[in-house]
Amino acid sequence: MVARLRAVVPAYSALLTLLILAPLLTPGHLLLRDAVSTPRSYLTDAALGLGDAAPRAVPQDAALAVLSTVLDGGPVVKAVLLLALWTAGIGAAALARRLLNAPLYAQLVAVTVAIWNPYVAERLLQGHWSLLTGYAALPWTVLAALRLRDCHGTGRARLAAWAALTLCLAAAGLTPTGALLAGVLALLTVGPRRIPGTAALWLGTAAPWLVAAALSGSAGEHSDPAGIAAFAARAEPGLGTLGALAGLGGIWNADAVPTTRTGPLAVLGTALLLLLVLLGLRRLLGAGLRDETVLRRTLAAVAATAIVLPALGATALGLAVGEQLVTAIPGAGLLRDTQKYVALAVPAYTLAAAAGAVVLARRAPAAVTALLIALLALPLADLAFGVGGALRPVHYPAGWARAAAVVEEAGHPGDVAVLPGGMFRRFAWSGPAPVLDPAPRLLPADVLQTGELPVRGGTVAGEGRRAVRVERALLAGAPPAEIATAGVGWILVEHRTPGPLGESARTLAQLGAPAYTDDDLTLYRVQGPVITDQPTANARRIAGATHLLWAALLIGAAATTAALHPARRRTPA
Question: pTM of the entire structure?
Answer without folding.
Answer: 0.96
